[in-house]
Amino acid sequence: MTTVNQAATLSPPRTAPNARTRMILEAPVLPTLLALAAPNLVVMLAQALANFLESYYVGLLGVDALAGAALVFPLVMLMMMMSAGGIGGGISSAVARSLGAGDQDKADALALHAVVIVVVFGFICSAIVIGLAAPIYALLGGEGAALGAAVAYSNALFSGVVFLWLMNGLSAVLRGAGNMRLPAMVMVGGVPLLLVLSPLLIFGYGPLPALGITGAGLALASYYLIATVILAATLIRGRGGVRLSLHHPLRRALFGEILGVGLWSSLNTVLSNLCVVVATFFVARTSMEALAGFGLGIRIEYLQIPIVFGFGTALVAMVGMNLGAGQIQRARRIAWTGAAVAAVTTETVGLAAALFPEAWLGLFTDDPEAIATGALYLRIVAPAYAFLGVGLALYFASQGAGRMGWPLFAGGVRLAVLALGCALMAWWLPGNLAALCAVMVVALIAMAVFNALPWLRNAGGGAHRVVTPRQE
Length: 472
Known about the structure:
single chain; mainly alpha
């Protein structure tokens, strides 16, 4: 469907692949995928713990604070997904294909271009969300104390969102080189920081005043800053397979190579988060207690994204490098292997959540309506998480191929099914949350099917046309 910019036309001498690159190009697929994904899965566990800690602390502030956090959560995840899986995916794809083609100098130059891109995006997103916070969250259904909590939390967090973009952009450079371990170590190291910093800023201690939900946002912003400093220092020293340096001239072709994948990927993340916004819009029309419960329930779905991200970032590097080296059938085998592993993993989590929803929801609130709403969502939607796993895994594989047309179409289909279905259910069965959840399941299935179609036909819907060493 949609093509991306071709690689730069310069043809520098090929450099010999290092041990990590040779493993990705030659070693058995499943063991290599699992080895590369393992550090990212550790990151998933760390992010799940950080998410739990934040939700737990905010829950102690009351239902209004939980509802406010639920309103902000889709935008926070949008920033995470755009910076890590959207633009970050474009960065990893470009770096991986360059290294697969044996062009180390180009991979190093791409690191600088990546930094420029994420800084610009970070400042733009910060300015937009801070400037329009109150209207945005009111439009989503926030009102009264819940709206005030949403604005306070959002302003604190988005004041440091440029560091979130930098953290994920620098991590993407390393992951494109097949270095999954260092970003994982940095992410995991942030959990103890949040464990201490969040309650200190939220509840205060000694001379430190209690900042309430504002403190939760500031704690996350501080973590992003510290992680950025560590990752930048590592890349400047040339560790991790790529070196970050100011000595490379900025070239339009290299910006295009990143953005040709990254912008389409980011648009896809916007569509994905709009699905949550649409669902949030309809749930918010019932009550703030129901909204709080829905926000807690859907966090399980959002936690599936880091799970698949662990496999997905490995897929980007493996598919990208193999296509860069001209190994098309191996790239296709990698994509389907990743999809199968992601499906089994996400379905396991989904079934556990569906069978024992109160075990999760009861950690954060004792409000009966909030628990009932969250449990209803989990019992209906969570058993379909295997489709979410397949769709997301093949989305990442398409990033590695540098072709985002089908994933973008799949995201649009999911949003259309969800929006039209929820509107129909709201008219036909007003207030029926079970019907809304059923629509969410149908939308997930549609997304998975359309992400799979190009990989059923060939490698990424024409991924073989991505530049290979023979074409350079």
